[in-house]
Amino acid sequence: MKICVLGLGYIGLPTALLFAAHGADVVGVDVNQSVVDCLNRGSLPFEEPGLGDLYSEAKSRFSVSTEPEAADAFLIAVPTPLDPATKVSNLTYVKSAAGMIAPHLHRGNLVILESTVPPGTSERVVIPRLEKSGVAVGDFLYAHCPERAIPGRTLSEMTGNSRIIGGYDRESTDQATAIYQTFVRGQIYRTDTKTAEFVKLMENTCRDVNIALANEFAQLAEECEVNVWEAITLANKHPRVTVLNPGPGVGGHCIAIDPWFLTENSTRCRMVSTAREINDSMPNYVLRIARGLLAGIRDPTISILGVAYKGNVADTRESPAFKFIQLAENEGYAVRCHDPYATKFTHPLMDLPEATAGSDCVVVLTDHDCFRRLDPATLQVRTKFVIDARNILDHGKWADQGFGVRVLGDGTPVQQTVPGEIAASARLYPADAARPIASPPPSSISLLSPNGREGFL
Ligand SMILES: NC(=O)c1ccc[n+]([C@@H]2O[C@H](COP(=O)([O-])OP(=O)(O)OC[C@H]3O[C@@H](n4cnc5c(N)ncnc54)[C@H](O)[C@@H]3O)[C@@H](O)[C@H]2O)c1
Ligand SMILES: CC(=O)N[C@@H]1[C@@H](OP(=O)(O)OP(=O)(O)OC[C@H]2O[C@@H](n3ccc(=O)[nH]c3=O)[C@H](O)[C@@H]2O)O[C@H](CO)[C@@H](O)[C@@H]1O
């Protein structure tokens, strides 16, 4: 079996390597020459736990190119970004990938779309472009097989998760199922292409709405001067309640985008767009807290800890840090950023001492594990304020070092946080107490539920 995988990013590369490691001959195709050069040098274009070992294992059956070639199966894993101005999906890359496959497509070949797309895209956009080959769908096989793996645990989820296979017809579903069964240990569920497209978007929209609810709870709790972290922990003791974690906003290439794909053609949606609005407003809310702390300080400097969209990853796509920084700079604050994982960002990334030197407020935006262990005694700040927008720091330790500690959702009225103090409710419910961990989590796990339940990431 020869498989041609178009798009060697966070999804396409691990998928291509898994196929190769399980016996297929794989040609990985990427239009970005630097990705191809990087792989040809034997390096990886990004980091993901286990990917280096998998690359070594798969190397002998894996080659890379900027052009597709004839194969038994083609898999499309190219980006599907959101147009920021219109909030409509940008299908340019998917269209181009289908157009690149067409000249190589033959009767009996299988084409799989893994990219996340609005419902109906396979039928309306992808299949017609593939048919320009002169082969009609039915004579070639087609399936939409959305990816569910979570960055930071991509390989274990790609192999262990259940999958949805949405075939154009029975034969397409059978063939696609057979290919995935070479490495997927999870259950495979069969459906049609449009339902598969819809299911993927529902999954991420469900998560976005639930995070929005947690973020709204955080704001409501503060209005009531209640610590939301304690409240969530207790609410989650109910057997049928699972509240997620509030935070500074929702980023990444999926959760912040896919709800718009689901609703882009709808005139009915209310809850989905409201959830997007709430999550997108969280940087404003965190900045409001900073504004309260920094009032009266001349030429204030904010130090951002974490610009990646979530803990223990380098990816900054759609990170809430972008909006927070832009708002902070518009407010007249100087901003200095530190992130031990991220390499690409709009602002210079500094090491920790440089990013915090002379700072008036440290703001934790990303839940990298290394921040949990940070020793505040080593920081040469000017004013000792810290805002923990992820509830991950050892708050007692920071307060002992003279920091005024403000945790997102801790219920402290802004004006009551003074240097050297920790909010009473935050002291009552420090991060470690709020998130008991029964056994050490895998290093890639960054978010634990307040009650430490599995499946909470
Ligand atoms: N990253 C995730 O966690 C994740 C999870 C599930 C689903 N998805 C979906 O998978 C798709 C890919 O996402 P990603 O994060 O891997 O993207 P990515 O940006 O990491 O990688 C995509 C790659 O495709 C290449 N490319 C663009 N056009 C091409 C073409 N015509 N032919 C060949 N290569 C081309 C780009 O150069 C890039 O290297 C998206 O639709 C995304 O929504 C992503
Ligand atoms: C349904 C689902 O699980 N889908 C996953 C998701 O992967 P992801 O990495 O984008 O997802 P998250 O980890 O949820 O992060 C998103 C943002 O939400 C913030 N967040 C999270 C939890 C919380 O309680 N409070 C928060 O504030 C977090 O910091 C970050 O900014 O989409 C992928 C692509 O489709 C899927 O493949 C993958 O299965």
Automatic annotation (TrEMBL):
Which InterPro entries does UniProt cross-reference here?
Answer: 6-PGluconate_DH-like_C_sf, NAD(P)-bd_dom_sf, UDP-Glc/GDP-Man, UDP-Glc/GDP-Man_DH_C, UDP-Glc/GDP-Man_DH_C_sf, UDP-Glc/GDP-Man_DH_dimer, UDP-Glc/GDP-Man_DH_N, UDP_ManNAc/GlcNAc_DH
Q: Look up the EC number in the record and give it.
A: 1.1.1.336
Query: Could you tell me one molecular function GO term of this UniProt entry?
Result: oxidoreductase activity, acting on the CH-CH group of donors, NAD or NADP as acceptor
What domain of life does the UniProt record list for this protein's source? Archaea
Q: Which GO terms describe its biological process?
A: polysaccharide biosynthetic process
Which UniProt keywords are given for this protein, alphabetically ordered? Answer: NAD, Oxidoreductase
Spell out the reaction equation it catalyses: UDP-N-acetyl-alpha-D-mannosamine + 2 NAD(+) + H2O = UDP-N-acetyl-alpha-D-mannosaminouronate + 2 NADH + 3 H(+)
Location of the UDP-glucose/GDP-mannose dehydrogenase C-terminal domain: 303-395
The family this protein is said to belong to: Belongs to the UDP-glucose/GDP-mannose dehydrogenase family.
The record, for PANTHER family, names: UDP-N-ACETYL-D-MANNOSAMINE DEHYDROGENASE (PTHR43491:SF2)
Please identify the protein, giving its name as recorded: UDP-N-acetyl-D-mannosamine dehydrogenase
Give the species.
Methanoculleus formosensis
